[in-house]
Design goal:
By secondary structure, this protein is an all-alpha fold. The protein has 16 helices and no strands. The longest helix has about 45 residues, at about 400-445. The protein is globular.
């Protein structure tokens, strides 16, 4: 089958109700799934290698904790801007071209970042860190925005299941990045981790050029900002923001806290981070399957997930007013709780926003999926900026324990707002169902 097939000619929609068994995935769907899984894995392993050793390396180059937070944060700001732009113009640019170009840019920036240890300490090093990370973020935004949109286009009836399954590879990238990066750094120095993983991304480029289909679609006049006129979408986006803020905070501060408090090496810090990514990796496909099979539970999965996230951050330090001493086993357990709750909360958000967009009158197609994907990426990136920057400031001026408690407070607010909204909506939904039932009964009597 030609990988450059026009997907307008291929019907991925659900056929009318039938007693026939569900069809197996086509060869094109299977190849696309493999391709996007490789993108998720390679992109996330390159993103996550910085955590165990870059903060301590940056300190040697005269960067403060606040500046380190800003270096992590600038990635998120550029990712935010890139996600909104790429989501809006995905049809004009082309989903496949956007993904492949994004991978190429990210690969080159990863290799360049590995050469920054040769730059003099001080302003030169810090400036180049900002420049390379910013360009890398735009490439990452292009690749991830198009991959989310293509997934939803090719698997319209199983979005949460497929995204949950793909998050296994995102989780594997997050799992392998810190320990592999920490081990390579300890064994071979600063440059080798970035060189190896940058080359891995380069290998993905020709593979995806061959495998990915070319999707033709009509552009839409709608915008991502119209989506934000719905209260439900705003609250879901805030929940996405709190999740990514927590992750960004941990990226920038956890390694220094663990090294200082427990006297650990960079390699062991990478292993501790497994406590976060492994539960997320295992939980995501289960949550995706369950929320696709029972869509009504998506809302309460998000509420329960954000409450659990808040609990995890409160005990991660733990928060000082509890007067519980910091212990390594408690840190690892709470990272596991946060990782599991991330899967419970994050997986339902994307299909839930798509459903809201269609209810609001957006056209079903790649253009709308691109805007939803861009909106998701933008709020995720906003959190990834807030987490390292504000978390770094609070850590520097107060402590890691208080900064972690602030992240828990953000997640608790998300749970509270979502719970209030869904409880207020329930009587209205029951009223609508009763009106429809009365109308159908009247029509039958007539």
């Amino acid at each position: 089958m030609d990988p450059h097939v026009d997907l307008q000619q291929t019907d991925y929609s659900t056929p009318p109700e039938s007693t026939d068994p569900p069809r197996r995935m086509t060869r094109q769907q299977t190849l696309t799934l493999i391709s996007i899984a490789s993108v998720n894995f390679s992109s996330m392993i390159c993103y996550s290698i910085l955590g165990p050793f870059f903060p301590s390396e940056a300190v040697k180059k005269e960067a403060s904790q606040t500046v380190i937070g800003l270096i992590f944060g600038c990635y998120a700001v550029c990712n935010l801007i890139g996600s909104l732009i790429m989501g809006r113009y995905i049809v004009q640019i082309g989903a496949k071209f956007m993904l492949v170009t994004g991978l190429l840019v990210s690969a080159c920036c990863t290799i360049l970042f590995g050469l920054l240890d040769r730059v003099p300490a001080g302003a030169a090093f810090i400036t180049l860190c900002f420049v390379v990370r910013s360009i890398d973020a735009v490439g990452f935004a292009a690749a991830m925005t198009s991959s989310f949109a293509m997934t939803a286009k090719i698997f319209p009836n199983n979005v949460a299941t497929v995204l949950g399954s793909l998050e296994i590879f995102t989780g594997l990238g997050l799992i392998m990045g810190p320990p592999v990066g920490g081990w390579l750094y300890q064994s071979f120095g600063y440059e080798v981790p970035f060189m190896l993983l940058g080359c891995l991304l380069l290998i993905m480029v020709p593979f995806n050029i061959y495998v990915l289909p070319t999707i033709e679609a009509d552009s839409s006049k709608d915008s991502s900002f119209r989506l934000l006129t719905r209260v439900k979408i705003v609250l879901i986006c805030y929940a996405i923001f709190t999740l990514s803020a927590g992750l960004g905070f941990l990226d920038a501060t956890l390694s220094l806290f663990a090294i200082k408090t427990f006297n650990l090496s960079s390699g062991y810090v990478g292993l501790i981070m497994l406590g976060l990514s492994l539960p997320y990796c295992l939980a995501s496909p289960l949550m995706g399957y369950f929320t696709d099979k029972y869509p009504a539970v998506r809302s309460w999965f998000m509420v329960i997930g954000t409450i659990t996230t808040a609990f995890g951050f409160f005990l991660l330090g733990p928060v000082p007013f509890l007067h519980i001493p910091s212990q390594l086993w408690l840190l690892v357990v709470m990272l596991g709780v946060i990782g599991f709750s991330l899967g419970m909360t994050a997986i339902p958000t994307f299909p839930e926003i798509i459903t809201c967009a269609y209810e609001q009158g957006f056209e079903e197609g790649l253009s709308t999926l691109g805007m939803v994907s861009g909106l998701f990426g933008a709020f995720w990136s906003l959190g990834m900026f807030y987490g390292p920057v504000v978390g770094g400031l609070i850590t520097q001026h107060l402590s890691f324990e208080w900064a972690s408690a602030v992240q828990g407070g953000l997640a608790f607010l998300a749970a509270f707002f979502l719970a209030v909204y869904y409880l207020c909506q329930r009587p209205q939904q029951q009223s609508v169902r009763e009106d429809r039932r009365d109308e159908s009964t009247r029509l039958l009597n007539e």
